[in-house]
Amino acid sequence: MPDRDKNTLHININTGGVFEESPIRSYILRYFKGISQPRVLLLIAFIFLFVFFYGKNEESIGKNDIGKIETIQESDILTKIIPTEGDGECTAILLNWNRLDNIKIIVKNLCQYSMFKEIFIWNNNVDLHLSDTMFVDTHCNKIRYYNSPGNMYFIARYLACSMAATKYCYFQDDDWMIKHLRSMYSNFLRFPNLIHTDTNADVYSSTNWKWCFFDDDIDLHSCYSWVGTGAFTSRENVLKFLKMTSKTEMSSLEFIYGDMYFTTYLNQVPYQLENSLIELPQENGFSLTGKDRMLNKLYMHKALIRLYNYLSLLKSKNNNNPSTQMIEDTKEFSPTLYERDVRSPCHNDKCLFLTNKHSFPNVKLFKYKPYINISESERLHSSFFNTQHFISYPYSHAVDNDNSTAWISQDVIRKDDYIGLDLLLPMPVPLTFNLIIDHKSDYFNHLSIQISHDGSAWIQLSPSPKLDISSLSSTKNNLLSCKFRIRETGFRFLKLVSTRDWNFTFSIYDFAFDGVDNEVIDDTVNNILGNNDNDSGD
């Protein structure tokens, strides 16, 4: 695809595709025969005017600096909408050991994303010398590689990031395919001081509960999170981490296991998103089970003890000689864990699911004690709270485009609880939303529908959009579908806020949106065809 001006909203409309996929096609095929010639001409004129003015309307929004739209063989103009904020400001870091075929697959996937200026491959395998010819079939011109003189293990990714020319870095291991990069990056750009990670429901239940370590007495507020299944970070944070390895006198063996220290050492809870992951062949890798898993826990524990001792020393010095810089170094960044509401990327990487409902108890219920190892800490957390409900009904099931799965909240809906979507960028056109739930229909009578440009300042829509509620009789749970149209443009965030308490939980089976106004199209066609029926009866 040729390079395009990233400050322009590009549109490419194929009128044939609009007709092929449009809801009006079935009406036309059904009624074409038997309609008098004047009515045929009227119908053809309508199709022409619909396509012509539809396209003209989209050309008018090309002046807005909000992204790229390419509509090819689609009636929904949002199909190819792509955020461009942060383009070229990130370097993707990959580590190679013994799975070069996986690396090539991942490179092909990453190369399509405009946020990556470069894909840096650090080769830890001294028996394999990377060369340009190895990557010809990836057709990617962003590749740079480094053949390390020795195996630097996991710390290599942080050294590679420190060498990057961009202010952000992206990490992932060579045994995963990550498909929700735009949505994760969009949220990262809102809060670039926080590491953003991506993982599945099982691991998420650990990284947001069992592997969180707090002690307000020394300003410890840290959770461990994997970076191998996708992570965005600032280069500044990586440099801070590398300095911390020196300040805490980390041993050389600990140093190479940098993954077990990075998210913990920064003493900030990573902003974690939950969704399903795609595995690539995983032979010849570092295992997360058995001996390797125990080794991970060992170094996770070592990292916490070093951080605990470092913060205790800072606290002691600050008590004797108060320092603004020390306070700045240990404060918890906003949004804190319980101020966050972004949960999961949508299945098509076009949005993020929002809710204020948390799935685990307050992590401060357990005060960190350095003499308790990770396995014992996990046991204590598990005996206090069982995470199986969340693993079975995670956030991602609300936006996975599958009506057979659901996110079911842990507790009942309270007043001001909400669900919502981050659409990744301000929307240039009116949108239709579809919410599928297993709730009482009265729930919809007590909603405040709100929109926002920045996710902070919210506007309640008044009058509220018309809600089209119907029963999905084909489903075993008697689900309800609620469709509504928001004609306002320029907003990025939407939330549906409950205005009263309920005695049931959120049960969200799907939450999606598109740019097609089927109601207007169908009403127009029905009017034309209805007039034809009346004429035929004269």
UniProtKB/TrEMBL annotation:
Coiled-coil segments on the chain, per record: none
Presence of the UniProt keyword Transcription in the record: no
Keyword set, alphabetical order: Membrane, Transmembrane, Transmembrane helix
Residues passing through the membrane, by range: 39-55
InterPro entries for the chain: Galactose-bd-like_sf (IPR008979), Nucleotide-diphossugar_trans (IPR029044)
Protein name, entry field: F5/8 type C domain-containing protein
Source organism: Rhizophagus irregularis
